[in-house]
Amino acid sequence: MLESLSGRTHEVVSGLALVTPMWEDVRHEVTRVTFRGLTARDIGRYVAGGEWEGRAGGYAIQGRGAALVERIEGDYLNVVGLPVSLLVRLLVEHFPGTYGFG
After folding, report:
1. What is the pLDDT of residues 9-66, one digit of tens each?
2. What is the pTM assigned to this prediction?
3. Are the beta carbons of 34 and 72 closer than 8 angstroms?
4. Which domain holds residue 36?
5. CATH value at residue 88
């Protein structure tokens, strides 16, 4: 996985749904992540650390995996696992003032 991401840009897509008995709002967030060119040694060291285990993309951007990344376009927290920016936008739209926003 890391070898295929090396020197390339990929998209992290997360879905989010707010559901009530009266309505539902389902949306998604896309974040583009560009990896730097990785050497076999870079990949070997990262894999040996075990941080990649259980990660959908084979890396943890919030840990040592950040050193694999050259650029990120969009919501960093979406890559970590929860599109917080999207969540806040939805809460402001549907519940203005309730959560201290809007």
Report:
1. 999 999 999 999 999 999 999 999 999 999 999 999 999 999 999 998 899 999 999 9
2. 0.88
3. yes
4. 2-94
5. 3.90.950.10
